[in-house]
Amino acid sequence: QGYTINPEKQVVEEILTGLAINEKRYGYKACPCRLATGKYQLDCDIICPCSYCFLDVEKNGRCYCSLFVSDRFVASDPSLPEYVPDLREGTKREEGERYL
Q1: Residue of 90, 60, 55, 91 lying closest to 77 (CA atoms)
Q2: Residues ≥6 apart with Cβ < 8 Å to 83
Q3: Is the bond leading into 49 cis (omega within 30 degrees of zero)?
């Protein structure tokens, strides 16, 4: 698929803890780096691996939360951006509702 789990153990542990908390809280593994509503139909795009993961890894070397990374990221490719923008940011989910 062109990606792997981040080799940084602490990063992975923090994300897995957040996923476990969200699974207990909502009943599904919503990305802990994004705001979940608790409504599955509104959050289905941020269930790990999220809908944005593969594009983020391809373009930025890692997904938004950095759980999944590319070989280029592991090799510290200097051409990769320092920050990964949230592709979900600003997406309208329901009339009048926005995610920041």
Answers
A1: 60
A2: none
A3: yes
Name residues of the chain where pLDDT drops below 70: 90-100
Task: Pick the closest to residue 15 from 63, 57, 52, 67 (CA basis).
Answer: 67
Q: Are 4 and 33 in contact (CB under 8 A)?
A: no
Q: What's the whole-model pTM score?
A: 0.83
Handedness of CA 90, 58, 72, 15 (dihedral sign): positive
Cβ(6)–Cβ(12) under 8 Å? yes
Number of CB atoms found within 10 A of residue 56's CB: 24
What 3-state class would DSSP assign to 93? strand
What backbone torsions phi and psi does residue 24 show, to the nearest 5 degrees?
-65, -40
Radius of gyration for the alpha carbons in the chain, expressed in angstroms and rounded = 14
Longest dimension (CA), the chain: 43
pLDDT value of position 3: 87
